[in-house]
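Weekly structure sync, notes
Attendees: PL (lead), two postdocs, one rotation student
Agenda item 3: pending single-chain targets
PL asked that the sequence for the first pending target be pasted directly into the notes so everyone works from the same version. It is reproduced below exactly as submitted, 277 residues in total.
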Amino acid sequence: MNAESYRFVDWTGRVRKPPNLIPPVVIKKKDIDGEIQRLANLPAPANGRRESMVAHPLTGPGDGLAYTIAVSICVLRPGESTRPLRHNASLVEFCIHGSGHTTIDGKRIDYEQYDVWTIPPWSVFQHRNDTDELQVRLSYSNSPLLEKLNVYIVEEDPRAAATEEATSEKAIDSARISPFGTFPLSEDGAYLMPYEKLINPDHVEVSALHWPWKKVKTQPRVAPTAPLTLFSPPSPSVRRILSTAHTATCRPPSTITFTVAVTAPWKESDTSGKRGI
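Predicted structure, written out during the meeting:
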């Protein structure tokens, strides 16, 4: 084989270096406000997306604030909307000013200030500001991770997602399906999975979710000043597919989390929604 297609790297006796941790940074409110104003003063781009990524210079490809997480400031003037878009990254959206709605594969999510919602990977989505005030969102994405793996795919102006049913096992030649399926190999949790299932797992629907701040702030708290974690647990089928992952020391697979830090003592009478976010 051509020697340029691969090489052997001798790691005999070599010791791995510790990870290169990046120093923490604080993004100040006055700087965020200034960037919001700058974006709002720009002429509307062709795709409608006024967006500024808050990037750490040491995170490498993807312009992430962390190695695997991107944070963007997104602004829409009254009456504006973005062009349809889809990509294979997961998004968590957080409205910090104004309101509006997002359409995700035909599902409409109306949101207000401090609402949180998710956009699943490969969903066709579009943001709209149908109000008379400026709309500002913080958008959190795992796109830097995908870019580092060279698997980040973006499609501009995609056609509306048609209802596509995943191929069922009944439609596949039965001779190509293992009669054993996925089964436990040992009592301590080791499983065996047929190769055809590994490369073509069952389709698992991931829905867009919405956490309205009006409902979140009315929930009782065990510790008034503790952060709240909004999460979407993986479905049982996802847990089965990813059952080979060791989760004793990590977050469950496919779990999306968003933490709201309540930094001021909570008061039931405080309904403004403007404290501690």
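Discussion points:
- Confidence is low (pLDDT under 50) at residues 161-170, 236-257, 260-277.
- Residues 181-201+208-265 form one domain.
Action: rotation student to compare against the earlier draft before next sync.
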